[in-house]
Amino acid sequence: MTIRSKCAVAVATGILCLPTIFVCSIRGLAQSVQPTEKTVQLSRQSVTAPVIVSTVTLNGVAITPGKPFVADDDWLKNMTIVITNRSPKTIVDGWLLLALPETGDGTRTNPEIAQQIQFGQLPESARHTASGKTLDPSFYEPMSLSPHQQLTIPLAPFVATLRRNVETKGSFSAVSTILVQLSVFYFNDDTKWDNGTYEKPDPDHVGRYLRIPYWEFTGDQNH
């Protein structure tokens, strides 16, 4: 499955161009340097993770996360992220975080710039918050990513927003590192994987989830 879109037509692809968010990071952005070496970093992926980033490509050629490579200033426009569903279930909704570690120093006054990408549609069990609100999922296009199926996500539709926000702090051409992190994924049986934990809806509290062991998530009765 491949997602091709621009931000203006993101709904048709199941990806929403969300407002850029800010999270804490490591170092400030150098404004005068234009590096030729770029790096893609991946957050830690456990051996039991139901979803992984399986491939990162630049101009259609696979690159190795963590290993510097030479590219021009349009590198993010020409990059794609491929995720693989390794679980025995169908994914119906997912969230991917793109972060630029060089754009912040780890403080609230100078956080790093990042952007969330959502693809798919929240299941019914996730549309109700603990405070009693009901979320409207109609803006999102439904998705069904079967076991062992892959989803290709081009970064081009999201670069303009990242650039605009980076340029409030420094030069976009000075950005040489991007961190890709898988955040939250919902499955067709109402379970979810949330930053490394497995969960199911709490039958006694609407909008809340209970942690469950890995074997329960996978349905392995011989654990």
Q: Would you kindly provide a brief summary of this structure?
A:
The chain is mainly β and 223 residues long. It has helices spanning 10-13, 156-166, 214-218, and strands at residues 15-17, 21-23, 37-42, 51-58, 61-63, 69-70, 79-85, 91-100, 112-120, 150-154, 177-187, 192-194, 197-201, 209-211.
Number of helices: 3
- Inertia-based shape: globular
The multimeric state of the shown protein is single chain
Return the domain count.
1
Characterization of the model:
- Strands 1, 2, 3, 6, 8, 9, 11, 12, 13 and 14 form a ten-stranded mixed beta sheet that branches. A four-stranded antiparallel beta sheet has the order 5-4-7-10, with no helix packed on it.
- The chain has one domain.
- It is built from three helices and 14 strands.
- By secondary structure, it is mainly beta.
- The two termini are 33 Å apart.
- About 13% of the residues have low confidence.
- Helices cover 9% and strands 35% of the residues.
